[in-house]
Amino acid sequence: MSGWLAVAGLGPGSAGLVTPEVEAALAEATDVIGYGPYVARIEPREGLSLHPSDNRVELERASLALTLAASGRKVVVVSSGDPGVFAMAAAVFEAWEGMPEWRELDIRVLPGITAMLAASARAGAPLGHDFCAINLSDNLKPWSLIERRLRLAAEADFAMAFYNPRSKARPGGFARVLEILREACGPERPILFARAVSTPEEALKVVTLGAARPEMADMRTMVIVGSSRTRLIERARGPVLYTPRWAE
Ligand code: SAH
What we know:
Layout: E1 4-9, H1 20-28, E2 31-35, H2 36-39, E3 49-53, H3 58-70, E4 74-79, H4 88-97, E5 106-110, H5 115-123, E6 124-125, E7 131-135, H6 143-155, E8 159-163, H7 173-185, E9 190-195, E10 203-208, E11 221-225, E12 231-233, E13 240-242
Parallel strand pairs: 1-4, 1-5, 2-3, 2-4, 6-13, 7-8
Antiparallel strand pairs: 8-11, 9-10, 9-11, 12-13
Helix pairs in contact: 3-4, 6-7
Bound molecules: S-adenosyl-L-homocysteine (SAH).
């Protein structure tokens, strides 16, 4: 079998945050598969077929990738950020698990810079101590589980990084998240809204939970809430948020 399949992360947006390893795989690829806006980030060239698809067809997309790779093609499945974080790598392995005939296929996961790390770097170091990451979309899990994890994470005093905070399909969910956090962490806790990090539309806003409004987030926003130790230092260019590395 000469084909292979790489599941690659394109980083949060800017070309400078794509790893050389991912660039090399894309340069060798015969096929690129992924959600339309991510595939649109790939430079077309002769000999490269682009397969953009809708966001909701992850398993279909994974099966197409496996079929092409098994037929000898060099396939890159692209995700934004890191492919292992709320993205295509797990979908590819889920499809592959049910296909024993493809067990020895050459499959690699090429990491990328996930939105959480790009956002925290812009703001300072809010994830400098223990933290957790939660996907706020209830497409693939019940809302009750999201609420439970939020409360437990707040009780454990983690800093929290939230992906997929708000969409048109779930207008009320994020308002409820803010309510729960205000109740569990108090109104003074800092919260970062980092939108479209590393793209020309990048915008950062740091407020307290008391002043946070649902409209401050959309589907291009990463939300980070500090722990009880997180420090906010004001300066003219915008505040620095950091969580010290120690705890008693
Ligand atoms: N695999 C991706 C995450 C996919 S989930 C990764 O590792 O980054 C999609 C969510 O990621 C978005 O709703 C948003 O919360 C976040 N996100 C992705 N790119 C972003 C960016 N450039 N700036 C801020 N948030 C981003």
